[in-house]
Input
Amino acid sequence: MSLNEGSVSKPTDLVQGTVDLLILKMLDLTPMHGWAIAQRIKQVSNDVLIINQNALYPALHRLEEQGWLKSEWADSENNRRAKYYSLTKAGRKRLNQELAQWRRLSSAIEIVVSMA
Output
């Protein structure tokens, strides 16, 4: 995953699990295939968060193996076969846990970096 800072895109070590959280959140509303997940994250973040395939697909497989995602093959919007991922009941529970943890962590970081 990289953060796009202005016109320069550089890889950034993010908090472990951030990619998982972003994927789970994107799938909260509707099933999506991998490329669409990455594009939606990029779009929603105003081109700041860019998840490359080397991070995306291993994460999708890991989340599926953990039972948080399920997948099925279907035709994409451009009539190509694509693997669509959706949240399982356990995945929705995990998303809620991840969101709570992220909010605690980001709040603590904000306190530290805002110190005068």
User: Anything to note?
Assistant: Residues 12-113 form a domain with the Arc Repressor Mutant, subunit A fold (CATH 1.10.10.10). The first helix runs from residue 18 to 26. The helical segments are 18-26, 34-44, 53-65, 89-113. Residues 6-13 have pLDDT under 50 and may be disordered.
